[in-house]
Amino acid sequence: MTASPGAAEADWEALREAAREAMSHAYAPYSGFPVGAAARVTDGRVVVGCNVENASYGLGLCAECGLIAQLRLTGGGRLTHFTCVDGRGAVLMPCGRCRQLLFEFGGPELLLETASGIRSLAEMLPDAFGPDQLD
Ligand SMILES: O=c1ccn([C@H]2C[C@H](O)[C@@H](CO)O2)c(=O)[nH]1
Q1: What is the pLDDT of residues 32-73, one digit of tens each?
Q2: Ligand 1 mean position to 64 CA, how many Å?
Q3: Could you tell me if the CB of 95 is within 6 A of ligand 1?
Q4: Of 13, 21, 53, 64, which residue is the catalytic one?
Q5: Centroid of ligand 1 to alpha carbon of 5 (angstroms)
Q6: Which of 6, 44, 47, 91 could link 70 by a cystine bridge, Cβ 3.0 to 4.6 Å?
Q7: What ipTM was assigned to the predicted interfaces of this complex?
Q8: What kind of fold does domain 5-124 have according to CATH?
């Protein structure tokens, strides 16, 4: 995102803060586990999402689903940096299904904030199935 390491950390903190704000809009009455996600896009904008559950439990939407919808609704582009937080604002790993959603719009180079530092999606979803397999 930026050149200097200090500024880069500030950018991740800003992204985490956007995820926390998004998390405050979550609808999670069934799990009691609100989630917020935020990502930076190639053109510099930030897109966010929160989880939205449903009385038919299996239909609940992860925060990443809303984020991807916002990406498309606000101009498209590719995701470059992603973070996700739980109800306490702590960094949360995206579930497997959501890693696949992120792969579609960020590819292997997408950077994720994880419990073990900044890692590429290639590390978190190795040998991923993606659009290239359909060629
Ligand atoms: O990456 C994830 C993992 C979980 N959840 C949501 C789904 C459900 O509403 C709640 C508990 O699993 O957390 C997300 O939004 N994203």
Answers
A1: 999 999 999 999 999 999 999 999 999 999 999 999 999 999
A2: 9
A3: yes
A4: 64
A5: 31
A6: 47
A7: 0.99
A8: Cytidine Deaminase; domain 2 (3.40.140)
